[in-house]
Amino acid sequence: MAHELFSHCLQSANARGLNQAPPLTGYNLFLSDKTLVNAVAREGADWANAQLSDLGRLLGTEEVQRWGFDSNENEPVLYTHDRYGNRRDEVVFHPSWHNLMRTSVEHRLHSLPWVEKKKGAHVARAALMMMTAQNEAGHTCPISMTFSGMAALRVEPELVREWEPKMLSSMYDPRFRPAQEKSGVLMGMGMTEKQGGSDVRANTTQAEPVGRSREYLITGHKWFCSAPMCDAFLILAQAPKGLSCFFLPRWTPTGERNHFHIQRLKKKMGNRSNASSEVEFAGAWARLVGEEGRGVNTIIEMVHHTRLDCAIAGAALMRQGLVQAVHHARYRRAFGKLLIDQPLMRNVLADLTIESEAATLFMARLASSFDARESEPRERAFSRIATAIGKYWLCKRACIQVGEALECLGGNGFVEESIMPRLYREAPLNSIWEGSGNVICLDILRALAKEPASLDALIAEIRLAAGADPRLNAFMAEVESSLVKGRNGSDSEGQARRLAEKLALVLQASLLVRHGSPAVAEAFCVSRLSGDYGYTFGTLPAGVDIDTILSTQLDS
Ligand SMILES: Cc1cc2nc3c(=O)[nH]c(=O)nc-3n(C[C@H](O)[C@H](O)[C@H](O)COP(=O)(O)OP(=O)(O)OC[C@H]3O[C@@H](n4cnc5c(N)ncnc54)[C@H](O)[C@@H]3O)c2cc1C
Which atom of ligand 1 is the closest one to the Cα of 432? Predict the structure, then answer.
């Protein structure tokens, strides 16, 4: 009898999921993120609040969360040939991928600042992107490349006239048809070749001019080409005057399939909903973009914008990691108490919160510099260096912050049914593409050496917080002296990561002291700046106001 009773209790405990957190669903990703809501208002983008709240609510629904899981569990499939042996070069996606793409295109994540020429448009888009990447990051790749590609295409008025209306369209049209027949188009990028991704000057793909003005035939390969079903690509190839940038559509202007052959899809660690391919160009038709021989200078405008999106994605992954960890801790009991009431867990969660809030402020400030960079030289200079710092730092921090957040869920965090493994696998990707960690740090050195206005703008920004906190003042002095040493030192390259870290920390501290919650700003300065801190999250020193820091998460 006792045995039967025990067995009955066990069955009902199993059936009820005893001591398990309910799924985190039915919440608004915008309204529940006070740091984001405040940043949007501060940077003048609150005209977009209705749209932000609409998308935030949608992304929190069970149905849209399901799209994220389904599109990753049902990976895209490549068809190189049709049944008669003709080349097909098509990738077929699960319907959930198209649902995600449609939602993002309809919310204009690929185009908002180019359409809505209002103050704060980049910030509004960054906030939309930050929420979307929390739900499903893979599909934001073609969204980001379309947004960024537009920035680089501006130098070619004829191409803009032809392509811009469809690139800016909020109609998602996934049909593999010539652009002329479509209501909306998307754009990708091909720079990386087998022999080198960072060092694009080693590209071997050849571009041969073909009589008519600015038209070329491209022959060669790309080792990574994501979202190959995009309608057109900005690629790099060697022309007679050197490495140049080209616009290469999947269909030629006469409506024939271009010689763009997808060899295979990469089997990836993460980012599985998205197709990343190897492609071969067999005399593919393309148009020159910018000056022949100045390809890197031309495509860098696209890269600058995709780097912004990497920084946004880093902040997004950290926010989602935090939200999931706090949610779990509010429901899960161990040793007679909820995890959220266990002092050591509170230290970990508070520390994750600090990192996430600092990242959100950084990405919003970065996005606001994109709003102003056309009209204000100082903002342009700030954007130049801060984008590299943000891309480096937020992507790096996401790798470890998300890992720690995953552990807060214990074994459940390691299981695919939670979103945590997906966040964890996505995190390093943002650090690799669009310039891997070292390459970005070297880019920071390049900006400091060749564009002194970027350093002046950065220092001016940091100094806006001068006098607000003694630890920040001391750190600022140290950073300024390392900048001088870096300029004169013999091993500036070898020390570039140390410098990038310091620049990131001082910029984040300056933003937090001015705009963050006071308890978070204080905890950031005491831990990250004054060194009273360990090597892992959850090592905040005694005296940090953990209750206040966590209350911002628990109110939401
Ligand atoms: C999923 C995925 C999708 C991608 N999609 C695209 C795409 O659509 N289009 C595209 O063009 N590319 C794409 N890439 C490629 C990506 O941009 C490259 O992998 C990246 O730029 C690094 O190039 P690489 O792989 O050749 O590594 P390498 O350039 O060989 O670099 C290897 C390592 O060496 C470091 N390194 C390089 N130079 C230096 C130096 N001077 N000093 C110190 N360290 C250095 C790098 O930081 C890196 O850690 C994608 C990559 C991935 C993983």
Answer: 20
Residue nearest to atom 17 of ligand 1 (CA): 433
Calculate mean pLDDT across residues 44-71.
98
**How far is the centre of ligand 1, averaged over its atoms, from the C-alpha of 391 (Å)?**
14
DSSP 189-246: EE--BTTBSS-GGG---EEEE-SSTTEEEEEEEEEEEE-TTSSEEEEEEEETTEEEEE
DSSP summary character for residue 305: H
pLDDT tens-digit readout, 281-337: 999 999 999 999 999 999 999 999 999 999 999 999 999 999 999 999 999 999 999
* Selection from 420, 137, 77, 138 nearest residue 273 by Cα: 138
| Best of 265, 426, 439 for a ligand 1 pocket test (most atoms within 8 Å of beta carbon) | 439
Query: 413-442 burial string, b = 16+ CB within 10 Å, else e?
Result: beeeebbbbbbbbbbbbbbebbbebeebbb
473 CA distance to ligand 1 centroid (A)?
A: 37
pLDDT one-digit tens code per residue, 78-105: 999 999 999 999 999 999 999 999 999 9
- Assess contact for 171 and 104: CB atoms under 8 A: no
pLDDT band at residue 211, thresholds of 50, 70 and 90?
A: confident
Q: What is the residue type of 35?
A: T
Beta strands 242-249 and 215-226 are unpaired
CB burial of 340-358 (b: ≥16 within 10 Å; e: otherwise) equals: bebeebbbbbbbbbbbbbb
Protein residue with least CA distance to atom 33, ligand 1: 436
Does the model's pTM come out above 0.90?
yes
Give how far Cα 47 sits from Cα of 43, 133, 362, 375, Å: 11, 22, 21, 21
**Ligand 1 surroundings by CB, under 6 angstroms:** 188-192, 196-199, 224-226, 268, 271, 276, 429, 432-433, 436-439, 442
